[in-house]
């Protein structure tokens, strides 16, 4: 009997260890060679059920259960300044929050136009690259959760 329980204990410990290892791997990444000349690694924490999909070097999408909940596009400093100016000065667009941290400077907007939801305009510090991450009106509640699940690094 002691032999059996010792063997069972060993098997259970190995199973718990394997389960712990698989639960730690809850992220996915894509590396984009964007038009600005920068190489940006985008990492998504998938513990919320989101998946990352590279569309091309300047675009990626975040999906949940096969539905695209957010889309993103990379751009240069001129486009960043233009988009910031446009969003800051258009009617029916409200600044919800501005901030910086983790190598990013960002503004979150609510866009009160047909089929528009929330949009982040982001500058990736230490790069030549900005980013617009947005959701449609249908998925606007996902935008902040997705943004907080993403990390960006200049490679």
Topology overview:
Blueprint: H1 2-24, E1 27-33, E2 39-45, E3 50-56, E4 59-64, E5 67-75, H2 77-89, E6 93-101, E7 104-111, E8 118-124, E9 130-134, H3 143-149, E10 150-154
Antiparallel strand pairs: 1-2, 2-10, 3-4, 4-5, 5-9, 6-7, 7-8, 8-9
Here the CATH topology equals: Protein Transport Mog1p, Chain A
The span between the termini is 57 Å
Annotation, overall tally of beta strands: 10
Low-pLDDT regions: 11-23
Q: Can you count the helices?
A: 3
Q: CATH class, please?
A: Alpha Beta
Oligomer: single chain
Give the overall average pLDDT: 88
Strand order of the largest sheet: 3-4-5-9-8-7-6
Q: What fraction strand?
A: over 45%
CATH architecture: 3-Layer(aba) Sandwich
Shape: globular
H-E string: HEEEEEHEEEEHE
Helix content: 25-40%
SS-based class = alpha+beta
Kindly summarize this structure in a few lines:
The protein is 28% helix and 45% strand.
Describe the model.
With 155 residues, the chain is α+β, with helices and mostly antiparallel strands. The protein has a single domain, classed as Protein Transport Mog1p, Chain A (3-Layer(aba) Sandwich), CATH 3.40.1000. Helix content is 28%, strand content 45%. The chain is built from three helices and ten strands. The strands form two sheets. Strands 3-4-5-9-8-7-6 form a seven-stranded antiparallel sheet, with helices on both faces. The longest helix is centred in the first third of the chain and has 23 residues. It is globular and about 35 Å long. It starts with a helix and ends with a strand. About 8% of the residues have low confidence.
